[in-house]
Write a structure and sequence with these properties.
Layout (H helix, E strand, L loop, with lengths): L18 E3 L8 H29 L4 E6 L3 H16 L3 E2 L7 E6 L4 H20 L4 E6 L5 H10 L5 E3 L7 H9 L5 E5 L18 E5 L1 E2 L10 H5 L3 E2 L2 H13 L4 E5 L16 H9 L6 E5 L8 H9 L6 E3 L7 H7 L5 H14 L4 E8 L6 H14 L3 E6 L17 H24 L5 E9 L6 E6 L4 E5 L8 E9 L4 E5 L5
Parallel strand pairs: 1-7, 2-3, 2-4, 4-5, 5-6, 6-7, 8-11, 11-12, 13-14, 14-15, 18-20
Antiparallel strand pairs: 9-10, 16-17, 16-19, 17-18, 19-20
Helix pairs in contact: 1-5, 8-9, 11-12, 12-13
Length: 501
C-alpha cells in the first residue's frame, strides 16, 4: 500500500511552494471518507466565521463568482463550490470583481485555456480596485504541472490553486484564504477518496447531475482526461441511490448520471450491479420522471442498456454516442478500440430497437495523419447513422498525450476544408431529423425563461430537443405536452397542447 504523505510534505520534484502529493490512498475506505467529510464540515464552520469577520470589517456581505469551463462534470463540481461558498455566508454576484472568484477549468482543448488566461488578465485590474479580492483556479487544467508553472509565473496574484482530486477540501482552502493566507498551491496526483456529502447548490431546482464514476481508464491518445482526472473510481450503488432519493425529496425530477465512461460503472467494485441495472433502479425511484446519462463509450454500450432504455419510459430518448472518426485506421491511432463497422453495427442497432431515440455524437477532424479518404469514411458514417446532433471539433493537441507527439502533413487549409464538409453533412442530417418531428406532441420539461423572445419559455424534450413556447416563469419545472409547430433548423417553436384546444 502507498503511504499517505504528511500534511507538511513537499514533493522535491514539484516547483518550489507547490505541495504535490502522490496518488492516494488505497487503504482509505468509507469510514475514512466520512471522517474527511466531518473534517471539512468543521472547516466550513470556521470559514463562515472568518467570512463574518471580514464582512463586519468592510461593512457589507462578501460576494463570490464561480466561472465554469468544460463538461457536465465540471458544472457539477461548480455546484459544489457554490454550495460551500453559500453556506460560508458569501453572496453570489454576476458582476466582475467579486470578493472571491473561482475559475473551474477545462483542459480538453486549447481554446478553454485561452479563455481562462483572458479572464485572468482582467483580474489583476479588478484586484487593484478591490484589495480584499481572492482568486482561485481549480479543475482539470491545474493538474498539468506546466500550466501551474505558467499560472505562478504569469499570474502571481492568483491566491489559490488546487486540482480535481482534492476539490472536496475546498472548505479548508476557503478558510485559509479568508484567514489571510496567500499563494496556496495544493495538488494531488490521485486519490481513492470519494467525498460527496458537502453542500451543493444546484443550478436548477428540478434537475441535477449525480456523479457515479470519477476518472477514466481508456487512454484515448488525444485525451488528457485520464491524466488529470485519474483512473476510474465508482461510487457504490447504495450511495448513488440514496443521493437520488434525497434529490427527489427536494423536488428534483430529472437525474443526469455522470461519468467519463458510465458504461464502466462498477468494474472497480466487488459485487457491484451493472450500469444498466443502476439506471433501472434510478428510474424506479419515486418522484423521478426522467433519467439521462453522460457519457457512454461505444465499445462498452451493451444490449442490456438498450433494453433498459426500451422498457423504462423514464429513460430519456437520447443517447450521446461519441464517434470521433469514421476511419478504422484513425480510430486505431486514437486508441478508441472499435472499428468503423463495429460503431455502425451498434448505432444502427440502436436505430432499429429504439426508433424514437435521438443519437448525438462527437467528431474530431484533423487528427494527425488523417486523409481525405479517412474523412470520407466519417462522412459515410454520418450519412448512414443520420445523427440528430453532433459536436464537431478540429483536433487540438494536448501536451502530455501520445497524439501530441504525432506529426501531420495536412495543411491548415485541408483540415478546414474537411471540417467544413463534415459540419455541412452533420447539419444536413440534423435538420432532416428535426424537421421530421413537426406536428408531433411530445412532453417537454420547462427549464427557463427565454432570454431572446419575450413572453416565451424554453422546454427540453426527452430526446434533448429544445422547444420555445409561450409562457412565463411560473411554468419552470413543469412537464407539459407540447405540439411542435415551427421548425427552425435545430429547434422548434411550439405551443402546449392545451393552447391548441
Amino acid at each position: 500500500m502507498n503511504k499517505v504523505t504528511s500534511p507538511g510534505h513537499t514533493d522535491q520534484t514539484a516547483p518550489a511552494g507547490v505541495r504535490r502529493r502522490p496518488s492516494v490512498i488505497p487503504e482509505m475506505g468509507e469510514s475514512t471518507d466520512r471522517l474527511e467529510s466531518l473534517r471539512q464540515e468543521e472547516y466550513l464552520q470556521r470559514a463562515a466565521q472568518a467570512a463574518a469577520r471580514l464582512s463586519e470589517e468592510i461593512g457589507r456581505p462578501l460576494t463570490f463568482q464561480v466561472v465554469t469551463f468544460g463538461c457536465q462534470m465540471n458544472a457539477r463540481d461548480s455546484e459544489k463550490l457554490t454550495g460551500i461558498l453559500l453556506q460560508a455566508g458569501l453572496q453570489p454576484t454576476e458582476e466582475e470583481g467579486a470578493d472571491v472568484v473561482i475559475f473551474n477549468t477545462c483542459t480538453i482543448r486549447d481554446n478553454a485555456d485561452q479563455r481562462l488566461f483572458g479572464r485572468l488578465g482582467r483580474v489583476s485590474h479588478q484586484k487593484r480596485l478591490n484589495p480584499i479580492m481572492k482568486t482561485a483556479v481549480c479543475g482539470c487544467m491545474t493538474q498539468e504541472p506546466g500550466n501551474v508553472d505558467k499560472l505562478r509565473r504569469s499570474y502571481p496574484f492568483v491566491d489559490l490553486i488546487f486540482g480535481t482530486h482534492n476539490l472536496f477540501r475546498f472548505p479548508e482552502y476557503l478558510y485559509r484564504l479568508l484567514s489571510g493566507e496567500k499563494h496556496i498551491v495544493e495538488l494531488w496526483e490521485g486519490t481513492d477518496r470519494i467525498v460527496e456529502t458537502l453542500p451543493v447548490k444546484r443550478l436548477y431546482p428540478f434537475k441535477s447531475g449525480v456523479n457515479i464514476t470519477f476518472g477514466c481508464n481508456n487512454f484515448c491518445t488525444y485525451c488528457i482526461v485520464p491524466y488529470v482526472r485519474g483512473r476510474e473510481r465508482s461510487r457504490t450503488a447504495e450511495e448513488i441511490l440514496e443521493e437520488v432519493r434525497r434529490l427527489a425529496a427536494d423536488g428534483v425530477t430529472e437525474i443526469m448520471l455522470l461519468g467519463q465512461n458510465v458504461n464502466s460503472y462498477g468494474n472497480d467494485l466487488e459485487d457491484s450491479i451493472s450500469f444498466p441495472e443502476l439506471c433501472r433502479r434510478v428510474c424506479r425511484t419515486e418522484g423521478i420522471k426522467r433519467v439521462r446519462f453522460m457519457t457512454p463509450h461505444p465499445k462498452d454500450l451493451s444490449d442490456e442498456l438498450i433494453e433498459v432504455i426500451r422498457t423504462e419510459p423514464v429513460m430519456a430518448r437520447h443517447i450521446h454516442l461519441p464517434l470521433q472518426s469514421g476511419s478504422t485506421e484513425i480510430l486505431r491511432r486514437m486508441n478508441r478500440r472499435y472499428t468503423k463497422d463495429q460503431y455502425l453495427e451498434l448505432a444502427l442497432k440502436i436505430r432499429d430497437r429504439l426508433p424514437d431515440v435521438a443519437l448525438s455524437t462527437d467528431i474530431i477532424v484533423g487528427f494527425p495523419g488523417e486523409t481525405d479518404a479517412d474523412v470520407e469514411d466519417t462522412l459515410d458514417v454520418i450519412r448512414r447513422v443520420s445523427f440528430d446532433n453532433a459536436f464537431t471539433f478540429i483536433f487540438s493537441p494536448r501536451r502530455g498525450t501520445p497524439a501530441a507527439q504525432l506529426e501531420d502533413t495536412s495543411s491548415e487549409a485541408d483540415i478546414h476544408r474537411r471540417f467544413d464538409a463534415v459540419l455541412r453533412q452533420v447539419q444536413t442530417c440534423a435538420r432532416a431529423r428535426t424537421r421530421a418531428l413537426e406536428g408531433q406532441v411530445m412532453e417537454g420539461l420547462v427549464e427557463e425563461v427565454n432570454r431572446q423572445q419575450a413572453g416565451y419559455v424554453t422546454a427540453r424534450l426527452s430526446n434533448n430537443l429544445l422547444v420555445h413556447i409561450p409562457g412565463d416563469a411560473s411554468m419552470i419545472g413543469q412537464y407539459l405536452p407540447i405540439r411542435l409547430e415551427d421548425c427552425r433548423g435545430f429547434y422548434y417553436f411550439g405551443k402546449t397542447e392545451e393552447c391548441n384546444g
